[in-house]
Design goal:
Length: 164
């Protein structure tokens, strides 16, 4: 039995989501005050990296590929806009909101584990989620170029060229 592209992307997203969630929860409640590397000491970078993986995996779990791919096959080139993004505004929105709420909950729970609640950590979490989603969009674009010979940005570039 061969998995569809949609199911494969979703399974990869779910696996990465489970791994990143477990790692974030584990490391968010450990005490790194003594004998740690400089990366962990600069915890804004660690927050951004962790939540980039969370945003990426959330987006992969929620992305809506089949309608986009079917629509791409059926329509003429240049007659649409960023169909991929328009079909995925819900996935993008849910990923940003869920990732941000998760980061906020973690920050609010940290004082119960002798850690500090820091609004700058939450900002790093939020920016990481957004970066992860952007990476997901870029990697899916590359993937779709390889599979379908056209970028998700093709229509916009093609439309712009026709207008000039």
């Amino acid at each position: 039995m061969q998995l569809s592209i949609k199911k494969t992307v979703r399974i990869v997203g779910i696996i990465l989501l489970a791994i990143s969630t477990i790692l974030i929860i584990t490391f968010s409640f450990l005490d790194f005050s003594s004998g740690t590397s400089s990366l962990i000491k600069n915890d804004k970078i660690a927050h951004s990296i962790a939540y980039t993986s969370l945003g990426f995996s959330l987006f992969l779990t929620l992305v809506h590929l089949p309608a986009f791919m079917q629509a791409r096959k059926e329509r003429k080139s240049g007659d649409g806009t960023l169909l991929f993004l328009s079909h995925n505004t819900k996935a993008i929105s849910i990923s940003v909101i869920a990732g941000s709420i998760f980061g906020l909950i973690i920050e609010l729970l940290q004082p119960f584990f002798d850690r500090n609640c820091d609004y700058l950590d939450f900002i790093a979490d939020f920016l990481g989620v957004v970066l992860g989603i952007a990476i997901g969009i870029i990697l899916l674009d590359i993937f779709l170029v390889l599979v379908m010979d056209k970028s998700v940005w093709y229509d916009v570039m093609h439309e712009t060229e026709q207008k000039h």
